[in-house]
């Protein structure tokens, strides 16, 4: 209660999982760092230990686990936060999207697009690539789906040539 007003808010653990998942759903160049900063703040300023077991249970077999792993592995890799490797290993086991290559590509895109602000490819292709990279079909299929969007479309050329046959 705040005075006489009931206050409803997420626990610190739910805030971390929610923020990571919400952030990953749309790769943003402008303002994309705010969610990452929020997660850093929640992790570093927690007055009590984070209940990782609760987070693990919530994100088990969920795309939220993929999003959380992506964000935390990026922050850890870049030495912004220091997480126990067991936490990252447990999160890795609970997600289906990333293998080593997929994760390197996603981290590269995060640095290039969100942190540095450079557009590596056209906006619609980047959005499609990102979305396919985060699917829960497994790392190999995700790469196939993601790279399919990078290839030029020859549908127009085939349709035009077929008119003359």
Main features:
mainly alpha; 165 residues; 9 helices
Structural notes for this entry:
The longest helix has 16 residues, at 100-115. Residues 156-165 have low confidence and may be disordered. It is built from nine helices and no strands. The chain starts with 11 loop residues before the first helix and ends with a helix. The protein has one domain (12-162). The protein is 62% helix and 0% strand. The protein is globular, with a radius of gyration of 19 Å.
Strand and helix map with partners:
Elements lengths: L11 H13 L8 H12 L7 H8 L3 H15 L7 H9 L6 H16 L7 H11 L5 H10 L6 H8 L3
Low-confidence segments: 156-165
Q: Taking Cα atoms only, what radius of gyration do you get, to the nearest Å?
A: 19 Å
In N-to-C order, the SSE pattern is HHHHHHHHH
What is the count of distinct domains?
Answer: 1
What is this structure, in a nutshell?
Helices cover 62% and strands 0% of the residues. By secondary structure, it is an all-alpha fold.
